[in-house]
Amino acid sequence: MRFEGTADYIATPDLAIAVNAAITLERPLLVKGEPGTGKTELARQVAASLGLPLMEWHVKSTTRAAQGLYEYDAVSRLRDSQLGDERVHDVANYIRRGPLWRAFEAEGRVVLLIDEIDKADIEFPNDLLQELDRMEFFVYETGETVRARQRPVVIITSNNEKELPDAFLRRCFFHYIRFPNPETLASIVEVHFPGIKASLVRNALTQFFEIRETPGLKKKPSTSEVLDWLKLLLAEDLAPEDLRRDAASALPQLHGALLKNEQDVHLFERLAFIARSRRS
Length: 280
Fold this sequence. Notes:
It is a single chain. With 280 residues, the chain is α/β, with parallel strands linked by helices. The protein has helices at 13-25, 39-50, 66-69, 74-83, 99-105, 124-127, 129-134, 166-170, 182-192, 198-212, 223-235, 262-279, and strands at residues 29-33, 54-58, 70-72, 95-97, 111-115, 136-139, 144-147, 153-158, 173-177.
């Protein structure tokens, strides 16, 4: 069981090594990187490559670790007791299984994605230590212990919004997805837009990396954003020579796909103003 990438996902050699190392060690793979670099998509492509079902748990700021195991719906049970429903006599009817429980009870091995774990409270990762380590947990309401039939391939993503606890990090295999270099990004573009003109890709990526490397940029455009930009360029049927920036503002064509806040738009307008002042 080895991951080498897929026809729809360009996996660099170090990323493939990290995935396969985590599978061999039976440790969760913790993946960090800039937003838009394909962390979430990695789990989907690992599942597709290995022929395994995918279960996704998207973490929010209000998510509690216990929700990944199960939730006890006491309100529904109280309502049913008032209505005289026979279901009320079996507490199991009010246990809602979470993504970890569903992954543990699956007939075969699955890929479990825990997406954006850093969005939750700082104690969230620590609350999952035992469950991810032992692959089991106890259901207090029913008195049963749920054990994984087969250890799932666990992929955890983080946007580095907050530091994760050391005890949690010790139990993971870590990989940081670096932003693709121009050659890798060109390969990614070819996967998404087969047959695209090489001259258009060359001019677009040259301009894209110039934007990313502009000092003072608040939010650097990501892989997903350059793909959106190229999709718009193709939809507008723009030629490579049409990508010349507006001299008045130094902004690229359809810049709204790349620059996502007014500070960065104003930055390029100021740079254009300074350039014009120097020439005059």
